[in-house]
């Protein structure tokens, strides 16, 4: 049970909330859904039966889900995890902490919820994992960090991919100031690292890696640039396996005259229309190149592949 549910906000929680507001870069707290867009950032996506679930960064204190049965109307579910429920979070000696960039995956008849824990400075970021009964919780933290940062690597932006061809459970993570992608194979329990997997750095990688597979081809997509200005964009590469080697394919999503800094995305195949869609965040109502402050918006829209399997660059002006 969180401190709020228990009926009080401690001084420690108040300090965390202040830092969370800074680290979350103005992400709105009690956002209301508006068609296919809501306030938030860093969405991951999962489809269960006929429902699409998005898991965005929220307020730094809690992590929640948004669910839709028609890709137009979204309802908020949760929270799934509260920062006060993570017993090991203070072990690094940092004064403040925040949660961001979650990812949910189904395995072993349960759901596993991965998330980044900051600060990134002065103490290294870490990645945790919670076990959930349903796509919307309740979730129970595993009791320890899964991987940690340091030595030039920032343990952020986890994404877990269960390869349908091999059954391997792969954790992609890393980026930001280190701009380093790392890859691990998870044990069958999904909460333990089995081994580190060597991986080449894809061109222009900064953070927010995502893996999906279509027609036997693997697509590694990721963000490039600085999250709070117009340089933020999505690039992608393809491979014959989920571990590379990568064939760089170019820019998929970038700023235009109306929307700025799109990135930190996820792909999903819609149970509604059978098409592939992308979920991402962007800055709206910005006229310059940044840096920006305020709230980002989460957007979903369909994508297209050409005859050769390349993804058609996303048009935000549609």
TrEMBL record:
InterPro entries: Glyco_hydro_43 (IPR006710), Glyco_hydro_beta-prop_sf (IPR023296), Glycosyl_Hydrlase_43_Enz (IPR052176)
Entry keyword annotation includes Hydrolase: yes
Pfam family, one: Glyco_hydro_43
Source taxon at top rank: Bacteria
PANTHER family: ENDO-1,4-BETA-XYLANASE, PUTATIVE (AFU_ORTHOLOGUE AFUA_2G04480)-RELATED
The protein, known as: Family 43 glycosylhydrolase
Keywords assigned by UniProt, alphabetized: Carbohydrate metabolism, Glycosidase, Hydrolase, Polysaccharide degradation, Signal, Xylan degradation
Signal peptide residues on this chain, from the entry's feature table: 1-33
Organism: Stakelama saccharophila
UniProt cross-references to Gene3D superfamilies, sorted A to Z: Glycosyl hydrolase domain, family 43
Family from the record: Belongs to the glycosyl hydrolase 43 family.
């Amino acid at each position: 049970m969180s401190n709020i549910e228990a009926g009080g906000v401690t001084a420690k929680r108040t300090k965390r909330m202040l830092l969370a507001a800074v680290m979350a870069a103005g992400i709105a707290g009690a956002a209301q859904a508006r068609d296919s867009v809501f306030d938030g950032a860093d969405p991951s996506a999962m489809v269960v039966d006929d429902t699409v679930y998005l898991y965005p960064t929220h307020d730094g204190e809690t992590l929640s889900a948004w669910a839709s049965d028609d890709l137009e109307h979204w309802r908020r579910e949760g929270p799934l995890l509260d920062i006060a429920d993570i017993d090991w979070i203070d072990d690094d000696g940092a004064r403040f902490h925040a949660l961001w960039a979650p990812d949910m995956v189904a395995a072993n008849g349960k759901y596993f919820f991965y998330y980044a824990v900051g600060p990134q400075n002065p103490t290294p970021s870490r990645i945790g994992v919670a076990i959930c009964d349903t796509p919307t919780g309740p979730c129970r933290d595993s009791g320890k960090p899964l991987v940690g940062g340091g030595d030039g690597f920032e343990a952020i932006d986890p994404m877990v991919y269960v390869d349908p061809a091999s059954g391997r459970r792969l954790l992609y993570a890393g980026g930001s100031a280190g701009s380093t992608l790392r890859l691990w194979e998870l044990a069958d329990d999904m909460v333990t690292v089995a081994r580190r997997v060597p991986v080449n750095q894809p061109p222009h990688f900064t953070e927010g890696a995502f893996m999906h597979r279509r027609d036997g081809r693997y697509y590694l997509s990721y963000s490039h640039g600085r999250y709070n200005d117009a340089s933020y964009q999505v690039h992608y590469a393809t491979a014959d396996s989920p571990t590379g080697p990568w064939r760089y394919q170019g820019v998929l999503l970038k700023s235009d005259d109306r929307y700025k800094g799109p990135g930190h995305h996820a792909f999903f195949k819609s149970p509604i229309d059978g098409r592939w869609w992308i979920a991402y965040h962007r800055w709206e109502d910005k006229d310059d190149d940044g840096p920006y402050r305020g709230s980002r918006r989460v957007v979903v829209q369909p994508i297209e592949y050409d005859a050769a399997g390349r993804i058609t660059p996303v048009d935000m002006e549609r």
